Amino acid sequence: MTNLNEKQRITCLRNLKLLDTSPSESFDRITRLASELFHLPIAAVSLTDSDRQWFKSKVGVEHNEIPRHKAPCAAVAETNALLVVEDMKTDPFYCDSHLAGAGVRFYAGAPLITRDGFGLGALCVLGVEPRLVTTAECDALTDMASMVMDQIELQRAVGRIDATTGLPNRFQLLDDLAGLNAQASGKPRLISVVDLAENSQIANLARVLGASHFDNILRRLASIIARRVGEGRVLYHVGPTQFVVIAPDEAELGPYQEYVVSELRRLERLIDVAAQMTPSIGILCYEPEAMSPENVLRSLQSAVHEARASHNGVALFSAAADLRYQHNYRLLKDFSAASKADDQLFLVFQPRMSLNDDSVQSAEALLRWKHPEFGLVSPADFVPIVETSSYVKEMTAWVIDAALKKLGEWNASGFRMRLSINISAANLCEPDFLDRLDAKLTAYSVLPSQIEFELTETEMMKETGSAMDLLHKIADLGIGIAIDDFGTGYSSLTRMQKLPADVIKIDRSFIADMAEGNKERVLVQSMISLSHSLGYRVVAEGVESKEVADLLQAMRCDEIQGFWLSRPLQGDMLIRWLCERHALTLAQIA
Ligand code: C2E
Ligand code: CA
Ligand code: CA
């Protein structure tokens, strides 16, 4: 299997959101049946993740996962073919596998294949004695694997289909938009929403006709619209009377607008006889790289709102009408130039103090942008936009270069500092990341141990096998890895432990809450204890008062960062701050 295919396969598996979910009777029923049919003690629905086989359902085993290496189920997922190992002990490949080591002798697994042809894993049966299989048994196992897939497809559909019309709903649309954004072509995209009736009309119709009759009308109209939309295009049911269509890639704004108006006139004639409804259509034209799926949905609402007020019932919601969008798009467009200019981007450094001996040996590098027109723009405003675009590579490259350059200067003048640099998950997919980093370390004479990369919990969890490999290579170089904004995501600790991180930074929202009450303190205390028991060093972010610093010290937190110690400072200010601090401590000793 090629790397690309494997990457797509993993994405497909993760999108199904099955991994690390609770057991479910609908799968267990099939697993039990498989075990009974083969008269074997062990059966499982085993999903092939990047480095493990995780069991969605199982009988006869205690644990929930085994390593992927030499797991026969992984071979089934990779080849999409049934696999039988009659005796693992004598099998040249599997004789030294994890399963053989655990005493398993017989294995049969049928592939779990999605409609798009991706192998997710296997429905497998295992025994502790060697065994043969009949063709009938193989067929039955394959049939049961299909039943598992039906169940997976069914679960996926639940919550994604509108109950009245059976059309994909808002959640499916959000997912599909995210998928489309990932393959953006740089061209604006057109999307339209038709609202069949105004709010007051809906209430009135439901009252006069009765809810079920109204649903019938909706169903009928939805199927007419779906037919007009045509083969191969999807109609989404996103609100009580609202339907969305994504225009074909090649659609041009002018002709598309004309087409929409004519469709609306057709719809009006049709509805006229059916009921008191005034439909309107909003069109949105947007640059996919500058707009998140949630924002697309929000702008569509504005579009249809404008459409109701317009003379012909159609409104184009252009980016120009939306200030927030316009601003974001402008920032994104200007960022590339900013990263090449020498007077727009700069770094500030926020020191981090050890609670052990009050020493300051490291700081976090934080990016600042002085936009020629808007002045100082907060990273909270531009980083998320840049992160979802291809400029994320330029951004991180700029930050790494500036941070290492600074460290080199400090090294030369005798200040040994360590810097924490924020990077994005997308950077871990850059094939030349490590080589460029290595070159910079050499060029500025900086030791790998002088830097640490911060990645947020959620970003790290998104990552695939190849990104994980890169993360391990970075760690192997001696570069520290910190999990940023810890507590704000929803990662499973078992998975997090597989990351080569050594530091956990507790998000400042938890630290800010600590001053408030006991419950918040208990939470932070347990985060610290848990992290320590897993071997991490703990940094608390956003410490704003001595009271909180003292509490954290009592809780054995390792380091703190926050306004109480210092706000982020420009490079030379940081050195001055350090000198003053040092003089102060010396004076205290003397
Ligand atoms: P972050 O990585 O969590 O950075 C810490 C943020 O908390 C900084 O905001 C810092 O100024 C702020 N902060 C520090 N101490 C306190 C405190 O005591 N109280 C409060 N209320 N806030 C405190 P900043 O610099 O505005 O950065 C915001 C976010 O932008 C960062 O959050 C990070 O996610 C992102 N960011 C900043 N620089 C970079 C960068 O170079 N690369 C990437 N990828 N992201 C960056
Ligand atoms: Ca950070
Ligand atoms: Ca943080």
Secondary structure elements and their pairing?
Layout: H1 3-15, H2 25-37, E1 42-48, E2 52-59, E3 65-67, H3 72-79, E4 83-85, H4 98-101, E5 106-113, E6 119-127, H5 135-157, H6 170-182, E7 189-195, H7 199-209, H8 211-229, E8 235-239, E9 242-246, H9 253-274, E10 280-286, H10 293-309, E11 314-317, H11 323-340, E12 345-354, E13 360-371, E14 375-377, H12 379-387, H13 392-412, E15 418-422, H14 433-443, E16 451-456, H15 457-462, H16 465-476, E17 480-486, H17 493-496, E18 503-506, H18 508-514, H19 518-533, E19 537-540, H20 546-554, E20 559-561, H21 571-589
Parallel strand pairs: 10-11, 13-15, 15-16, 16-17, 17-18, 18-19, 19-20
Antiparallel strand pairs: 1-2, 1-6, 2-3, 4-5, 5-6, 7-9, 7-10, 8-9, 12-13, 12-20, 13-14
Helix pairs in contact: 2-5, 7-8, 8-9, 11-12, 18-19
Could you please describe the fold and organization of this structure?
There is one protein chain. Helix 2 (25-37) runs antiparallel to helix 5, helix 8 runs antiparallel to helix 9 (253-274) and helix 11 crosses helix 12. The mean pLDDT is 89. An 8-stranded mixed barrel has the order 12-13-15-16-17-18-19-20, surrounded by 6 helices. Strands 3-2-1-6-5-4 form a 6-stranded antiparallel beta sheet. It has a 5-stranded mixed beta sheet with strand order 8-9-7-10-11, with helices on both faces. The longest helix has 23 residues, at 135-157. The radius of gyration is 29 Å and the shape is globular. A hairpin with a 3-residue loop joins strand 1 and strand 2 (52-59). By secondary structure, the protein is an alpha/beta fold. One calcium ion is lined by residues 484-485, 505, 507, 541.
